Amino acid sequence: MKKKSIVPATVLTGFLGAGKTTLLSHLLTQPHGYKCAIIINEFGSVGIDNQILVGADEEIVELSNGCLCCRVRGDLVKCIEELFSKAKKFDYIIIETTGLADPSPISYTFFQENFADRVRLDAIVTVVDARHIEKSLSEAPEASAQVAFADVLLLNKTDLVDESALERITTRLRRMNRLAQIHRTERSQIDVSKILNVRSRDLAAPTIPLETESHDEHSHDEHCSHSNHDHDHSHGCDHDHDHSNADHGHHDDAVKSFVIAEDRPLDLKKTEQWLAELLGKSGEQIYRSKGILHIKGQAKRVIFQGVQMMFDNAPDRFWNPGEKRQSQLVFIGRDLDEAAIRQGFADCVAS
Q1: Which of 25, 39, 47, 51 is the most buried (most CB within 10 A)?
Q2: Are 3 and 128 contacting, i.e. CB atoms less than 8 angstroms apart?
Q3: Residue 281 belongs to what domain range?
Q4: What is the mean pLDDT of residues 260-266?
């Protein structure tokens, strides 16, 4: 018997008016080759450019391009279960959340045991309104969570702000989330290959190279490093603008990310124990964690990935000849005790 393929799922999120529905409409008109099931959890968003016609008692509607649309009624788990119970065929799930949704519960949905062999979370894609994001981040905790949980950030409506503002916003987003790929867009137009089936949540997937950073919190290095992330537009940093725009009220954001890098090998038992204790105690504050571990006595890299209190690690590929063996971890969260996390990690270095 042929084994069924696991269906990837992409979550579209973003604060009110950022451009999620425009992005979804764009996706449904592109020749991406997938038969999509679309889950929308706000009734007002069902009419996507007049492409979706939902009858009063209908939950699932087949679109003209062969996609399906499911209007969420109740729990997301039940909704996905019903999708699989229908006779309709689909090979991709796209979930559009409300503008006030916290992505955390959605992430946990995909840890359900009954989903393990049927569906996987591919990526959380957060659409950011370049014109209003700074105000949203300052006033709405949901906006910060949406940025922090993202695997892909679409900095949208870039035509409505000037270049200096875009650089400032990009710097702020990067400080909040070092894992996410950032793409600049107008009217949510983007190559679908950059947001569909990117496999960013796979444990065995290649880990995004993490830039190292200065431990000096006043250093400009971490704010001006673009790393190897796939930006649509890459710009050099002007150190002068950082001071001229210093009073934006966001230098003490509660949500931030930071990287730990260590050349010395780690003790596996100590590291696993530390991670379990850390995420068990502070998991609600640590939204995301991910990295490469250089374990003493291991010929292979170990990949680690966590979502709040849940984490997993597994051997990856062999270290290449001549490759620098180094552990690199990134933590993303709210009100993190960075000094304590760094010290706990340092205690895991093998003797």
Answers
A1: 39
A2: no
A3: 256-346
A4: 95
In a domain, 185, yes or no: yes
Residue 153 CA: distances (Å) to CA of 195, 196, 219? 9, 13, 25
Mean pLDDT of the chain: 76
CB of 125 within 8 A of CB of 195?
Answer: yes
* Helices 268-282 and 338-346: angle between axes, nearest 10 degrees: 160
What pLDDT digit, counting tens, does each position of 150-166 carry?
999 999 999 999 999 99
In a domain, 238, yes or no: no
Report d(CA 182, CA 161) in Å as an integer.
Answer: 17
For residue 180, the domain's CATH number is: 3.40.50.300
Whether 212 is in a domain gets the answer no
Same-domain status, 131 and 268: no
Question: Is 185 or 232 the better-scoring residue by pLDDT?
Answer: 185
Query: Which has more pLDDT, 85 or 42?
Result: 85
226 domain-assigned:
no
CA neighbor of 244 nearest in space, from 168, 161, 133: 168
Does 260 or 244 have the greater pLDDT score?
A: 260
CA atoms within 13 A on the CB side of 98: 11
* Tokens of residue 331, six digits: 């933590």
